[in-house]
Structure formats: structure tokens, C-alpha cells
Design brief:
- The protein is 47% helix and 19% strand.
- Among the domains are: 46 residues, Ubiquitin-associated (UBA) domain (Helicase, Ruva Protein, domain 3), CATH 1.10.8.10; 95 residues, 2-Layer Sandwich (Tetrahydropterin Synthase, Chain A).
- It is built from eleven helices and eight strands.
- Strand 1 and strand 2 form a beta hairpin.
- The strands form three sheets. A three-stranded antiparallel sheet has the order 1-2-5. It has a three-stranded antiparallel sheet with strand order 6-7-8, with helices on one face. Strands 3-4 form a two-stranded antiparallel sheet.
């Protein structure tokens, strides 16, 4: 077998970003064939991922991608073992790549997603490449794909919290929609629209409020229509606490006296769906 040149090893390292010794070993086993060496490295990386299957993945980041032309968007929670790895450029790029793929192609679940074609391999191959580089277990924890309408996004500076909003309309404003998503990240409203609140939840809240009003001595002897107005005011306040479109914008300096719904209406948009992912959380 001919000796593997340093130039060949360096070329393989450039193409894979893997350690020199691994590249040399792969080239040696492949008889100097660069493509075969790359295939070997992919196999070894997959085995490395299997060895780490029992490891805990408590860290990670959120990736979001929007394809405005296709009117699709994707958000993904990608997990790893340690905080430093979650901040590594390769891991950040992986989260972005998978989010872009989610925006482009639908998948029923995570196993189906991992098996889908991506570049010259699959999504799992792409993940295994980064596992080989960073030497940690990595998993796609969850993802959501949205189609149709106008989208906005926000990812917190540390990457652990991300929000994707979908609106009905024809044209958005990236900065304003980012502000709305940052609002969602901070306040985490229970519902997007008033119509999303279940009727039984509203009925129960009305009963509670009416009981409080009628038991308050200050309201003794007040006409029924006044009691009803007081109850309506209390319900409006309650909705403003838990429904996104009814909440005053968190950035009051930039949007004084305006609710999220009013800000969106000013853009000709209506909120449709919000996805909020936080690394480690079990609910959207």
C-alpha cells in the first residue's frame, strides 16, 4: 500500500473538519481513495453516536428558518450533552441546517425526519458528522413546520429559547414581528387568540369573577347591568393576561399603549399560530 501523503490527509480534514489522525486512518483503510475515506468516517461517526445513546442531553439550542418565497417555516429543538457544545459553531450550524430542512420538507415525526435526504446523505448523516466532530450525543428533540402566510422569529442570545409566529396577511415587517416574538419569549401567553380559549375555561372564569363581584360589599345594591359591566371589565383584564393579541406590547417605549393585536393589525396581519420552544421544556 502506498504511503498516505500529508496533502491528502489535509484535504480530507478540510472536507470533514475531523482530527488529522482520524483522517489519516480513514485514508489508510481506504487505500488513499478520498471518497471511500469519507464514507468510512461517516460510518465511524454513526458508531460514535450509537456509543453515546445512553448519555443525557440536557443542553441544546433552538434553530429557526423561514422560507418567505415558499411561505414555509421550521423550528427545531436540537439537544446535546454540554453547554459549551451547544455554543459551538458546528452545533449552531447544524441546528440551522435542520431547521431549513424542516421548512422545506414535511415529516411525520423525528425518525422520519432523520431518514430524509439532505445534501449527499440524510439528516441523520448530517447530525452524525457533528457528533464525530464534537464527540457528544446529539438528538433532534422536536420540530414544527408551518405553511402559509407571513412569519416572524426570535431566538434568545444564548439559543435556548426561540419563538416562531405565523400570521395571515400578505406582507410583514421583520423587525416588528421579531419584537412580537420577543414578547412571546418573555411573557409566554397561554393562548394566541381569544378564540383559542376554550369556552368552558371562559365560563369558569366568568363564574369566579361574578362570585367575587357579588360578594364584594361595595357592589351591594348595584343594578344587574352595572354588575355585568364590571364582570366584562374583569374578563377583559383576565384575557389581557393570558391571550397574546390582547396583551399590551412588552416594549412599551417602542409601542406605547398598543396591544400585540393592534400592532399586527397595523401591518395588515392577524396572528394565526405561535410556537415557543425552550430547551428542556416539554411543552410548546
Amino acid at each position: 500500500m502506498s504511503q498516505i501523503s500529508a496533502a491528502a490527509v489535509n484535504e480530507l480534514r478540510k472536507r470533514t473538519d475531523l482530527p488529522l489522525m482520524e483522517c489519516k486512518k480513514a485514508l489508510t483503510e481506504a487505500g488513499g481513495d478520498l471518497d471511500k475515506a469519507i464514507d468510512l468516517l461517516k460510518t465511524w461517526n454513526a458508531k460514535a453516536a450509537v456509543k453515546r445513546e445512553g448519555n443525557e442531553t440536557a443542553e441544546g439550542r433552538i434553530g429557526i428558518a423561514i422560507d418567505a418565497a415558499a411561505q414555509t417555516a421550521g423550528i427545531v429543538e436540537l439537544r446535546c450533552e454540554s453547554a459549551p457544545s451547544a455554543k459551538a459553531d458546528q452545533f449552531i450550524a447544524l441546528a440551522t441546517d435542520i431547521a431549513r430542512h424542516v421548512a422545506k420538507q414535511d415529516a411525520a415525526d423525528v425518525p422520519a425526519l432523520l431518514g430524509q435526504k439532505l445534501a449527499a446523505g440524510t439528516v441523520k448523516d448530517r447530525l452524525d458528522e457533528v457528533v464525530g466532530l464534537i464527540r457528544e450525543k446529539m438528538v433532534v428533540q422536536r420540530f414544527t413546520r408551518l405553511t402559509g402566510g407571513v412569519f416572524g422569529q426570535y431566538v434568545h442570545h444564548d439559543g435556548t429559547l426561540g419563538v416562531l409566529i405565523q400570521c395571515d396577511g400578505t406582507k410583514g415587517d421583520d423587525e416588528v414581528l421579531k419584537d412580537v416574538c420577543a414578547h412571546v419569549a418573555a411573557l409566554n401567553p397561554l393562548y394566541t387568540l381569544v378564540s383559542d380559549v376554550p369556552a368552558d375555561v371562559i365560563a369558569k372564569e366568568k363564574d369566579v369573577q361574578m362570585k367575587q363581584i357579588t360578594e364584594d360589599p361595595k357592589n351591594a345594591g348595584k343594578p344587574a347591568n352595572i354588575i355585568e359591566k364590571i364582570a366584562e371589565g374583569k374578563l377583559k383584564t383576565w384575557l389581557a393576561e393570558g391571550v397574546l393579541t390582547e396583551q399590551p406590547m412588552a416594549n412599551t417605549a417602542k409601542y406605547p399603549g398598543k396591544t400585540v393585536g393592534q400592532v399586527l393589525k397595523g401591518l395588515g396581519l392577524t396572528a394565526k399560530k405561535v410556537v415557543r420552544y425552550k430547551v428542556g421544556a416539554t411543552a410548546v
